[in-house]
Give the backbone structure.
Amino acid sequence: MRSPLFIIALVLAAGCGFAEATDKLQSQPNSQQQVQALNKSQAGKLALEQLGGKILKIQSQNNQGQHGYKVKLLQSSGHVKQVWVDANSGKIH
C-alpha cells in the first residue's frame, strides 16, 4: 500500500501539470475570437499613412452592413480626397 504522503505528492504534481496546460491554452488566441475593430483615430491615421495630406473630417458610417469610417483628406495639391476605411479589415476604399 502506498503512503498517504506519496498520494498527496502525486495529486499535487498532477494538479500543477493541469494548471500549466490550462494557462497555455488560455494564452493561445482562439480562431473564433473576433479581431478588435479600428477606432476613429486609428482609421484616420491609417488613411493618412497611405495617402498623405491633412485630415479634414472623419465620420463613422455603415457601408452595405460593414462598419467603417469616411475620411476626408486635404492633399498637398489642394484637392480633397474622400475614402472609406473598413473598421474590421483596415482596407481603404
Notes: The CA atoms of residues 54 and 74 lie 5 Å apart. DSSP finds two helices and three strands in the chain. The beta strands are 54-63, 66-74, 80-86.
